[in-house]
Design the sequence.
């Protein structure tokens, strides 16, 4: 089956008039006879929508009226999670393709009404809503790629003008106590910026030579960590910062080669990450390691008059006994 498909594709490419582009996509286009949807390039090539939002917008546009397009329904249909689908629907709302409002039915039930507009720009310009009738297409018995010979084209039936419907009534607001709003999870927070590679205070020739040899020798201890010359040159400041802080080369080698992911796809990124996040602090000096001086404490003394204990640097009498002697004097 695959061989027949390849042969048919090769024959189709040979029928394309003119030289083929040297790179990029090559279109092999056949006219659709049924089950197709017309999608504008303003949606398919929108520079402000994510790929998930464009795909969901095209999918919603291809569905018949009355189809369920809520977050739960789309999550059950596609592999993307509810967070991604909710974010894509919000994007479509921001750019005018989708609108979700609450309306109260005659029986008092509150429902969410979803309206999808295939051309938000035409809606803002006040264009009339038109119903495009089905197209009558003559399909040849064998489909071929378009060539110099004329190909029958579809002849659309002239659509009858349809009056613009009056604006829908404004839905009655629902009390928050009875119908609390549904909280949609926010988009995934952006990743924090990557931390810069540590730099030594002074990159001396000795530090550069030792760091270069240490990084180039990693593949002897971990065959997965094969670094190019450019990678070694870029990572030299990080290894020099470790050596400047008193780290032994064996300790650096152990930190960079232990418990590697299997298989490591980007060895240089792994070494850069570990040199950055596992950087040890500078070694403390003699003053930091000296024991803290204790505050002198006044010792206890025994009163020579009443044998009461009191704090004083010298032996003698307590406060009460001294007061009695002063009164007697």
Sequence:
């Amino acid at each position: 089956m695959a061989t027949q498909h390849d042969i048919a594709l090769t024959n189709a490419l040979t029928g394309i008039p003119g030289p083929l582009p040297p790179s990029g996509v090559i279109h092999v286009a056949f006219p659709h006879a049924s089950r197709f949807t017309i999608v504008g390039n303003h949606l398919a090539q929108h520079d402000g929508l994510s790929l998930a939002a464009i795909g969901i917008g095209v999918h919603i546009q291809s569905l018949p009226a009355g189809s369920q397009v809520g977050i739960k329904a789309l999550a059950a249909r596609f592999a993307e999670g509810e967070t991604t689908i909710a974010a894509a629907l919000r994007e479509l709302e921001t750019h005018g393709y989708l609108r979700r409002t609450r309306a109260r039915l005659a029986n008092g039930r509150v429902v969410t009404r979803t309206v999808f507009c295939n051309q938000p720009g035409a809606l803002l310009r006040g264009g009339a809503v038109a119903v495009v009738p089905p197209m009558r297409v003559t399909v040849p018995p064998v489909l071929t790629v378009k060539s110099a010979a004329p190909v029958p084209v579809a002849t659309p039936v002239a659509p009858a003008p349809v009056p613009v419907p009056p604006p829908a009534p404004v839905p009655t607001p629902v009390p928050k106590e009875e119908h609390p709003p549904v909280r949609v999870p926010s988009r995934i927070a952006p990743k924090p910026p990557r931390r810069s590679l540590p730099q030594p205070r002074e990159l001396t020739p000795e530090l550069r030579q030792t760091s270069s040899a240490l990084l180039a020798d990693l593949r002897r201890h971990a065959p997965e960590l094969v670094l190019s010359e450019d990678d070694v040159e870029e990572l030299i400041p990080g290894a020099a910062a470790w050596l400047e802080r008193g780290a032994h080369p064996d300790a650096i080698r152990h930190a960079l080669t232990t418990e590697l992911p299997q298989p490591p796809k980007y060895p240089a990124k792994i070494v850069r990450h570990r040199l950055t996040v596992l950087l040890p602090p500078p070694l403390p000096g003699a003053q930091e390691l000296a024991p803290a001086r204790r505050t002198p404490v006044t010792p206890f003394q025994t009163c020579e008059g009443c044998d009461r204990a009191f704090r004083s640097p010298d032996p003698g009498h307590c406060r009460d006994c001294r007061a009695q002697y002063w009164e007697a004097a």
User: Anything to note?
Assistant: The first strand starts at residue 98 and ends at 104. The radius of gyration is 40 Å. Confidence is low (pLDDT under 50) at residues 132-151. The chain has two domains: 1-13+28-189, 205-277.
